[in-house]
Structures are given as C-alpha cells and as structure tokens.
Amino acid sequence: MTSSAAPRLINARRDAIVLAVLITAVALLIWNGSNFFHNLRIGGEEFGPEIRIASTALTLNVALILFGWRRYVDLQHEAEMRAEQERRATVLATTDTITGLYNRKGFADRGAQLCADAAERGNNLVVISFQIHRFKAINDQHGYETGDRLLKSISVALAHELGPDSVIARLSGDEFAVALALRADEMSRAEELAEIVLHTVTRPLLFEERIIQVGAFAGIASTPAANARIPDILRRADIAMDHARSGRVARPVWFDAGMERALIAHGEIEQGIRVGLEHGQFVPYFEPQVDLATGEIVGFEVLARWIHPLSGVIGPDVFIPVAEEIGLIGRLSEHVIAEALREAAEWDPAIKISVNISPLQLADGWLAQRIVKTLADTAFPAERLVVEVTESSLFADLDLARTIVTSLKNQGIRLALDDFGTGFSSLAHLRSLPFDIIKIDRSFVTNIHMKRESSAIVRAVQTLAASLPVPVCVEGIENEDSYNAVVRLGCEIGQGWYFGKPMPAEQARELLAGRRRGGEPPVRSAVNG
Length: 529
Description:
The chain is α/β, with parallel strands linked by helices. Helix content is about 50%, strand content about 20%.
C-alpha cells in the first residue's frame, strides 16, 4: 500500500463510522417520537400543545443532525484540500520545476534521511558534485528551450544510470549533486559512479538534427554517515569540483583537507586585498635596469608589494592572481603605478620607469585614457614611462590591443614587449605593433652559461632586434656568469638580482644619489649585502 493510499483508507473508515452514528441517532429519534405519539393515542388524552412541541423538537433534532453531517462533510473536504495544497507546496519547495529532480532544499531533506538510514547500518555517505561546462553557451547559441530539454535529458539519463538508491538534485542552473550510501568495503565504487555521471552528462545528444555535447567537472567527498551533515559534505564536494574546474581536470577529483585550507587562505587574501587597498598597503618596489655597456642605471621596473600589518612584505605571486580573479587588478595596478610615478617624478630625468599591464587590463578599452590621466595627476613626463605588455595578453583581442598601444604611443609613451619568446606569434607582433623594447624572458637567461640552447635563442633575438632596430632588455640576471654571457651576446640592458633586488622608493632614491658606476662592469649593489 502506498503512503498516499493509507490516509485515504483511514478517512473512509472514519466517515463510515460517523455516518453510522448519525443514522443511528436519527433512527432513535424517529423511534422515540413514534413511541411518544403512540402512547398519546393509547392514553386518549388531548395534549395538543405538547404534541406540537414534541413534533417541532423532533424535526429540529433531525435537521440539526443533518446539518451537522453536512458541516462535517464540508470540513472534511476543506481539510483534504488543505492537505493537498500543503503536499503540492512541499513538492514545489523541494523539487526542481524543469527536471523534476530535488532542488537544494529537497536534497538537504532527503539527504538527511538517507544519512540517518546509512548511519544505522554503519555505512558511509558519498556526495558527488558536478557542473555542466559552458551550459550558458548552450542557452545563448540554441535558446533556453533547448537548454531546458538538455537538462531534462541529462536528468532522465542520470536517474536511469544511478538507480533509485541515489538522491539526485539540481542545485542551480548548471550545478548538480548526487548522494548515496556505500559500505566501507565498496568505497571504490564512488569514483566509478562519478565517472558514470561524467560520461552520462557529456554524452552527445541529438536535438532537432543538431548534436549538442557539453563538458562537465566533478568532485567527490565522503565521510562516515554517523558523523555526516549534508551541508558540510556537499560543501567539500563543491570545493573538489571547483578544484577540478580551475585545473581543467576532466576526471572526478576527491576532496582533501588541503583544498579547504587553500580556500580559506584564498578568502583571507581576498579580504586582505580589499582592506589593503583602502588603507594604502600596496606600494611600488623598484628593480634596477642597467646599461650593460656602461654599468649605469638607466631605469627601474615597478613591482607591486603588499606591506601587510602582520605578515610583512608579501610578493605579487601571492596576491596578483587573486586580485585578477576578483576584478581588482585594475584598481590595484593603477594605484601602484600612480604612487611609483609620483615618487619618480623628482628623480633624474634620464631614468625610465617601466610598469606592467595585466592581460585583464589590456581588455579595457579605456586603459590608455586612464594611464594618460595618471601621468597628468602625477606630473610625470610621458617620454619617461615604459608600458610593458606580455605576448600572451595580446591573443584575446589583437585589434583592441593595437588600438590601446597605438594610443599610448601617440602620447609619447614607450612600449616594451615583455616575456618575449614565450608566446606563439612573436614576429607577427613585432611587425604589427610599435614596440620600442624587447624583453627576453628570464627562463632563457637562467643558467645561460651552461645551456647552449638558451644562448642560441638569446643570440637570435638579439640579432632580430638589431635588424629592426629595437634594444633588448634581458631579465633574470642573477649571477656573474649570466651577466658575462649576455654581455658577450651584445644585449644592451639587463636587470636581475645581480644588480639589485626590488627595493622600496627611499632605497632606490638613495641608490641613485650615492652610486656611480662609471665604465666599470656592474657588481652586486650594496642593497643585497
């Protein structure tokens, strides 16, 4: 017997009992009334008023019983309608309207029940979280109706593949979750089931003579059911899924505690960046650039540093990726550039200041105007500014990049192609964009005195640049052997820890004021000890 049939049977039995009681009451009234009138006739006495009163009372009692029955029936109908409305409301509150699967609330409720049952048997609870990759593109290209049909097809296929013992839910637009209980000795099945999920979701589907196929990323989390809470284990599976998505891993990824610690650290860095920007904790550091022929400092590259009140100086490799992810890289970069130009405006007019532009910034059509405004606000001469652009940042939108760098060039700003040799279209970029300097990536300079391939690449770049003609700046000169190697190859400018580590503004100012190399070969600066 189904759960819905049992209440109906109970109600039917109750109605039958109530109806029997009412019929009995009416029968007794009629029987008592007939006995009363019969007794009156046998006595032969005239009781006109009493007869009318008794007749009226009998009629009223019968009417009252009938009214009560009707009211009882109406109340029962109202109760049934209310119960049905509550059932529908519960279904709507716990079910996804498109796929018919559980929604987030339904998954939590049904998952908690599954968890309790699994705890009684001593089993483990496993949650698989997965996300459809580029589902929005399906909606944009083929319409929302096709997207809904895709979701329904995936849902039906998942229910068929995973069976009734699994709790399947659509948590949001393109995010799903599966919960199931497994014995400790069959935990290897969890990854197999996750593979089945990915295979099912990514299976090609034919819609109106169009083949549609999507990708997916999945994360798995497991814990003994006795200690499990659905929100906690779902969060861990989501963390593992995000790890798979960020790493573009096409197989299921198991959750481990290190992922959670990294996520917490990421959140702390994100919050710290927001606070640090408000309190001026991001400052420019200056790395010297040296003329390899004369040994004189000809410029500085500006590098951002985070002066954290508790952790001290934090390098850009920690906060730059997070700033890019949360959309604050433009604001952070502009702040550091402005501080650097404001400081360097009073330095030797021959000193150039190089600043790096993030690939995300190069996608901003107003970047050139913002840089020009910064020059005006800081009173820094445009001809002393060098804007460094990496090859990889040009790939997304070459036309927009060409527009931006041309606008900068028209203002007298110099342009440098950074990390040269790591991209795929170096020569094409040199022909199409007006660069003034080529910077050879440090990966070609490390151990250049021991690697013939690196030496050959640097020599080829130097020869190419000389034919344009464009000067070459070599990054990553860390020791005297590397320095001697790039000098022999004829490179013009060098930078790296051999000449000085990145330093705060006051130290760079002191270095410019007190250091005179003349024609001597450069040596380690005093700032390195």
